[in-house]
Amino acid sequence: MIIILTASASDRNRRDIIENLEARGFGVHLSEGVEKTVIGVIGAMDEQKAQIAEQFEALPFVERCIPISQPYKLVGRSFRPEGSTVNVRGVVIGGKQAVVMAGPCTVETEAQILESARAVKKAGAHILRGGAYKPSTSPYSFHGHGVDALKMLAAARAETGLPIITEVMDARDLETVCEYADILQIGTRNAQNYTLLRAVGECRTPVMLKRGMSAKLEEWLQAAEYIASGGNYNIMLCERGIRTFETYTRNTFDINAIPALKELTHLPVIADPSHGTGKASLVSAVTRAAVAAGADGVIVEVHPHPEKALKDGAQSLTPAVFDQLMADLRLLAPVVGRSV
Amino acid sequence: MIIILTASASDRNRRDIIENLEARGFGVHLSEGVEKTVIGVIGAMDEQKAQIAEQFEALPFVERCIPISQPYKLVGRSFRPEGSTVNVRGVVIGGKQAVVMAGPCTVETEAQILESARAVKKAGAHILRGGAYKPSTSPYSFHGHGVDALKMLAAARAETGLPIITEVMDARDLETVCEYADILQIGTRNAQNYTLLRAVGECRTPVMLKRGMSAKLEEWLQAAEYIASGGNYNIMLCERGIRTFETYTRNTFDINAIPALKELTHLPVIADPSHGTGKASLVSAVTRAAVAAGADGVIVEVHPHPEKALKDGAQSLTPAVFDQLMADLRLLAPVVGRSV
Amino acid sequence: MIIILTASASDRNRRDIIENLEARGFGVHLSEGVEKTVIGVIGAMDEQKAQIAEQFEALPFVERCIPISQPYKLVGRSFRPEGSTVNVRGVVIGGKQAVVMAGPCTVETEAQILESARAVKKAGAHILRGGAYKPSTSPYSFHGHGVDALKMLAAARAETGLPIITEVMDARDLETVCEYADILQIGTRNAQNYTLLRAVGECRTPVMLKRGMSAKLEEWLQAAEYIASGGNYNIMLCERGIRTFETYTRNTFDINAIPALKELTHLPVIADPSHGTGKASLVSAVTRAAVAAGADGVIVEVHPHPEKALKDGAQSLTPAVFDQLMADLRLLAPVVGRSV
Amino acid sequence: MIIILTASASDRNRRDIIENLEARGFGVHLSEGVEKTVIGVIGAMDEQKAQIAEQFEALPFVERCIPISQPYKLVGRSFRPEGSTVNVRGVVIGGKQAVVMAGPCTVETEAQILESARAVKKAGAHILRGGAYKPSTSPYSFHGHGVDALKMLAAARAETGLPIITEVMDARDLETVCEYADILQIGTRNAQNYTLLRAVGECRTPVMLKRGMSAKLEEWLQAAEYIASGGNYNIMLCERGIRTFETYTRNTFDINAIPALKELTHLPVIADPSHGTGKASLVSAVTRAAVAAGADGVIVEVHPHPEKALKDGAQSLTPAVFDQLMADLRLLAPVVGRSV
């Protein structure tokens, strides 16, 4: 941590700060420039640093405090430089294979999820997605069939062998969802719901943590640290687009985040071009882009009849378009040293 | 709802859509222009509109669907054109008085919260704020003293008579918090935590709903509709700054939102310049601005010793600065037809 | 300037950097922490700092370079701590009076600008605004009457005595515009048009520099530094709203910027609530807010017949509404130690 | 164009609007719903639509006006559904080949640009980039060697045969730059400098128009329309990242924009991952992503000695890394039906 004093800080101010820091047991390193004085603080723990920064920035003679190390540890790249993998019923995420998760936004009927599961399995997908509990901006919209939908997903898994991923929105539903789900999804609106993050940190089911729609990479990694600090290390991150001024697309898919996360964390990185664009016509191009940029997997909305979908029809692919996308990915993955 | 077809839509496409809509019992109004065809849908309920929009936008010959009415009802201005008020132990929010809530970010000790309560009461504040459960970006930071802090707040209320506002983060804590709090605060990170919104909708304690840091006004009002649709009409909205590209301030306080909300909703509007700026030196100016723009109240962080604050010290006012701010507000409020 | 090395930097890396810096004549201050090494560079000029930062950040063992002083000098607060004023035909901007500039977006006809000038003069405005050269997003829109409009403005000044402010978009028009204008306006789309900034820096007519719609405060102040470094110190800054994700308003007026600029620069700060909101119904509230936050003046679009305005009718006030706003400001200004 | 009236509009209001529109010669189509009345306007020209929208939105009984056709024509996809190509000394942009432009940010010395040109040519690049006139946020930074740099670029072209692209910032320099450049670049800060756009519209040298850092796709296409409406159809668009809240990267590369532009316009689309990320370590991944998403070309900063670069060293690739990137692209391009 570095503390920069204002040009008007007095000798007395300087001495006060240094004495305060030394009294707390930190090493102090003073560097006096022509304009400004810089104080380096040595030996502070992360939680202490945040506290020091907050306290000291309130002082009128402190210009700012700059942390020089990352505010997350367990999920940082240096914790496992070789990268980590998550094993879901034999499907390895974060390894050589680029993993494809596909299926409808929402589980509507048993027939619909079975038809979807067969279609995505036939096209080559590895994991089935489908929403049982759905967050909706309006209280009057459809919110998912809940536990009934979980049972339909389990039936689709029984028939196709595809592991299933589904969203959990409420810590009180967690036990139920864990009975059925192979991967828990934390959605963008709950990306800083720390109560829920702590709860999934205490179970051992793998978790796919979506990015908050206005979360910086550093905040997202700290949200993942909540889960890891509970002892659940089976975490994947999912880039799903961020909120910007552009209105032509529903979100702006942050392609930079993929290689950036590969530098910052050892966790596998999944791309969600369906929400990242919000337009079916753009999904295939952005899916290819994500794999070319090094994503460990993708999650794509596929619906047998998008025009009848209860939710997110506008961004769902038909099985025929998804088939073509899988064919593209089979050619593309080897270019970046992967298979599909 | 209006459906705009693409220039390439065929007569057959047009006929299909119209038949589909009529079969569902909606009125249809066709308007054929030189370039494009526009279809008006009459008689659809809100929840149907969202569904129609999603389904139809997935069709290749539909360019876009435009809702023409607001996606919220109970909190809309037209529901109570005269505006609504919330009565908190005799303090009326949304009436002639601009209400001032003040206190420390976090309840640290009984001595600290008592000293704070006395100071803000003496300066003229109407309600005491203080955090018992604190959301923190890092899992390693301080998260509040929980129920012990609630008891300290109650002690401060007993002594000063000030009603108290405090944040609730988890539906499982709701019963406990309601025992002590006069106003429940929903924080920015939980602004779209629909589980929590539904839960506070079912109790009758007044709620102050902060804006999500990247929530559009329409999304924010739909979040409020979640609470209202549960039967709890005692809702205030709190503008606390949005996330933008500017980094000099912690957030960008959206002053436009204050008069805009006054047009869109009957709910009282509170301003939080402490989080809206993140810098103590800017808080007084933005508080004055909020009252001048028509806010029904403000919530301001005041700490007897900001340099020792466990959280958010950088944005807390000292009691002396807060005193001066209250003096300014007493002069300013009458200019906009209010008292303080 | 501070250089932070990565955890993996070797002793050799350290030595190389230090030797390079010393060879250039800079002082070097080394601070070795548990995790990372920090190097302070002493005695570098601003332009050298930017260059050092760019070069060194390209080295694999440098994590980042942090400038510790502001990248502008002439417009910085410390250059004139007491604040600067701009005198426009006797109207002093930046002094005790909050200055009001008002008029139509575009000069349409001599009758229109005369009617506007009389109306805003009668209501108490100090300066007349009106566009002769208009930037338009579409090439097919109206672009202003050019020099004819300048002459109409001059006629309105002759009759009312109000100094005039008008936009210049092209360095090639500068001489002509300077013949008529009392204040040159640089619009948001040209806020980083360095060619134009240099050109107005070389003349002596006062300049009002609008904020680029996605400019950080620091970038805006550097744009002002372009003008000042040419010798033209008669500069005002104009906050006119920034681009964010919110779509209900045309822009998000950054009220924080007003007190923030008062800390950072000595230049007078003007608020433009017409563009900052884009909606006539919000303009009065945000104008009051800006004055309450400490703005040195405001610029407001007023049109005698907004429904017939060629441009920006939706955000123009009628003379009657503007009259009421002026009455509000006369009450409000004294609260912040000003007159109108 | 569609006009939506407020719920409170009277019969008289309705009649007034219809008469006004009919008097101007437009067709009118009235659709009365349960809550609101919608008026369709038929036969208005684009420039009239903008004017109608502005006038009518100022009326208190008009809720909003919605244009239903695109505000650009010459650059719209429907103008040339098969896509357009730009031929630069035999290099065809927008055709089967994904075109690679590479070179240093700034032309520093003849030796530097020659060394760069040889390196990128050897690696397989098709066009040489290099800045002669450089926009800089600070007035005290380096601004390019101007005409001397143009001559050095011409020397590099003479030796290697690579066509050259270079930025023009000022209409007054245009004639000079056109003498040397094969492609004119309009930078992000001048993306809405309409004076400059009109000027390059009048010459016939191909133009690469960068996206404004906060420009929506629609605004960007209107900027391109400025150039096309002057008669210069040799236009390429260059996505270079947009400004968002994320600070880890310099900009957020908008990968969605690539397939979105392919739907909206016939112009070739180039990607600039160097500015789009601002970090050399991310450039290769995002370049691959852009080609996988369907970009017609890329522009990449390559510097023989990035650690010595006068500008943008942090985002420049070394020749060795660029070599590897070209090898990747040669494998990747065929997957999307292209060669490199």
Describe the fold and architecture.
Four copies of one chain form a homotetramer. The first copy, chain A, has 340 residues and is of the alpha/beta class. Chain A has two domains: 2-66, Phospho-2-dehydro-3-deoxyheptonate aldolase, domain 1 (Alpha-Beta Plaits, 2-Layer Sandwich), CATH 3.30.70.1140; 77-336, TIM Barrel. Helix content of chain A is 36%, strand content 18%. Chain A has eleven helices and 14 strands. Chain A has helices at residues 11-23, 46-57, 110-123, 147-160, 174-180, 194-202, 217-229, 257-264, 273-277, 280-292, 319-332, and strands spanning 2-5, 27-32, 37-42, 62-66, 86-88, 91-93, 99-103, 127-129, 164-167, 183-186, 207-210, 235-239, 269-271, 297-301. In chain A, strands 7-8-9-10-11-12-13-14 form an eight-stranded parallel barrel, surrounded by seven helices. In chain A, helix 4 links the parallel strand 8 (127-129) and strand 9 (164-167). In chain A, helix 3 packs parallel to helix 11 and helix 6 packs across helix 7 (217-229). The mean pLDDT of chain A is 92. Chains in contact: A-B, A-C, A-D, B-C, B-D, C-D. The interface between A and B is large, with 51 and 52 residues.
